[in-house]
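pasting 3-oxoacyl-ACP reductase for the record, 255 residues
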Amino acid sequence: MTSLESFSLAGKTAFLTGGSRGLGRAMAQALGEAGAAVALSARTLGAAQAAAGELEDLGIRAYGVQLEVSDVDDVERAVAEVSSEFGEIDVLVNNAGIGVGGAAFDTPDSVWDEVLATNVNGVWYCSRAVGRRMAERGGGTIVNIGSMSAGIVNQPRWQISYLTSKAAVHQMTRGLAAEWAPLGIRVNAIAPGYFHTDMSPVYEPQYKPWCVDPAPMKRAGEPHELGPAVVYLASDASSFMTGSIVQIDGGFTLF
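structre below
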């Protein structure tokens, strides 16, 4: 196998949560371009199927499934559906997540609970459901989408629940990597910085001084720039990596 061949995902089935738009949609396409058949989820079936249809138009075998990652029963159902209808999962990308801003004293318990349920419980439920199947089949790869916010405090938009959740994702990544390595399951994470999407208008005047200007590269990331890193961690190119957190933030956290 050559170095370039080690990046191939041909013959693999990938399942990416939260894949209908933004960074998730870009990562789903990257996995497909590397040769994987790609199942992706969204909270509504229509959104998931629409994104899958876009991938199929690009020549990528794709499947859309409705999923609420914070619901353990729904996770078990969706994983079983993808495995039986589309193919056993070789690669899991835990991308589904939410972020809600607000000062700590002003954050309702309901917001705290929702963010932690989605960003932490969702990663755990999906990892466990897919990990069990991977262990039975001899291994697989899991890529968690964390955040540079696991190690810094974003300003001026306070978001204590989001910071806490992403720090938990990073530590969960390390814990599962250590425990599941003997089972042939590698678990790594990506910690993105500020990326420019429809849901993250980082170049708007109210955000740019905080999100873009402090970065040494003086720009935000574009969604397609995250895809190759996911392919790397999902493929044999990273065969000796587990428990790693790959920071992709344009140098934002250097200072």
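The longest strand covers residues 185-192.
The chain has a mean pLDDT of 97.
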